[in-house]
Design a protein that fits this description.
Two copies of one chain form a homodimer.
Chain A: H1 16-33, H2 41-48, H3 52-58, H4 62-81, H5 91-115, H6 122-127, H7 131-146, H8 155-174, H9 180-195
Chain A binds a DNA duplex through α1 and α3.
Keywords (chains A, B): DNA-binding, Transcription, Transcription regulation
Pfam families (chains A, B): TetR_N (PF00440)
Organism (chains A, B): Phytomonospora endophytica
DNA sequence: CGTAACTCGAACACCCATGTTCGAGTTACG
DNA sequence: CGTAACTCGAACATGGGTGTTCGAGTTACG
């Protein structure tokens, strides 16, 4: 509804210090919304090192901020996958590559989605369906088509399993119950165990 | 701190209608806390069909209610597993049985844990570690010891994977993306895919 | 250098959830 | 039946989050 698009590059008609503060706010929002629920405007302002009034000057409402943070997260993830070409790899190998590059992002987006649930319109959220998420899903489809991944379970279920296992890995990592160096490998091995056709 | 224990069976010095209302409140709390975050006292009172004042008469604070609900959930789960003897079955078969009997409970407890996080002392929560959860974990250990489950991934990681996949199944079921009849089977197959030793 | 853009603390109005009190009505139970 | 236990709506105090306004100070930028 609001005419000012925070799309990818904001309009240049803003002074440099204002632009810098907006940046700080979005990063703070990304950090807080991406890790804990119940974030307040004061929290974000403090985390960003900015006055509450300034925060409201740039983002008129809680909902506006939440939307901008989500948009920013999506922009980031697009940038992160841009250089990645998986089309030459077999699906299982491609999964390992994608995971290594993106699993933290994927997890953060999942947490973010949950924590802004009450602030943004679910439809709006659905429209912006994260391209990085889609990447994983299309890889899944390809793997099934190639026969490298199992076809005896619903595709949507496999997709959901991926996301929840990624979330599990992030949780365990954060709780110190998983070795940071081993984490990606463990996660990849687990995902592939789920995806491989059953030995039946 | 409060001297009145809501342990398993409350003291009999309460009138019948009061006892009935406590029951209704706990069930309402279990329903709400077990499914959505941000539950208010008014919500619980309304769901229980009881006045807000009555609610406070039985549970002086939000924290008291939350603790009582958790305790009630644990009592329920103990009752549900009581008749189950898995010691005669091989670990993979035992998992299927346990899952069929308990996965909804296990998921609800996971959600509950998350939703009362800000209301109860984490230490208190840890002390009461749900026996039903422990049941799954000890089954896991047994399976590894018997060689039926893989030993190349950390036991704690396997445990975390189980819980997250159970949660995934409950989510998908609630969202209508998973056939209610097929759900348990799909879940069991997925869990066993993770647990089985890799074919390598 | 001067002005417009920007920042920010203080104070305000508002809403919502938590607890509490009062007082009158209802219900269990001896 | 009579009393103690219980219920419950209304109203209050409190605390926290959301937005807004004001006014003075700072900073970018032509």
């Amino acid at each position: 509804m609001s005419p000012d698009d925070e799309g990818s590059s904001a309009r240049p008609s803003r002074r440099a210090d204002a632009q810098r503060n907006i940046e700080r706010i979005l990063e703070a929002g990304l950090r807080l919304y991406g890790s804990a629920p119940g974030v307040s405007m004061s929290d974000v302002a403090k985390e960003a090192g900015v006055g509450r009034v300034t925060l409201y000057a740039h983002f008129p409402s809680r909902a506006d901020l939440a939307r901008a943070v989500v948009q920013r997260a999506i922009d980031d993830s697009v940038a992160a996958v841009e250089g990645l070409d998986l089309s030459g790899l077999p699906a299982d190998e491609a999964l390992r590559v994608l995971l290594r590059a993106q699993w933290h992002t994927l997890d953060r987006h999942r947490a973010l989605r949950g924590n802004v649930r009450s602030d943004v319109d679910p439809e709006w959220l659905r429209e912006r369906h994260d391209p990085a998420m889609g990447k994983l899903e299309s890889l899944l489809s390809r793997g099934i088509a190639e026969g490298l991944f199992r076809a005896d379970l619903p595709r949507e279920w496999l997709s959901a399993s991926m996301y929840h296992l990624i979330h599990a890995a992030a949780d365990e990592l954060a709780a110190g119950r998983l070795d940071p160096d081993a984490a990606v490998g463990v996660l990849a091995e687990t995902l592939l165990s789920v995806l491989r056709p059953s030995p039946r």
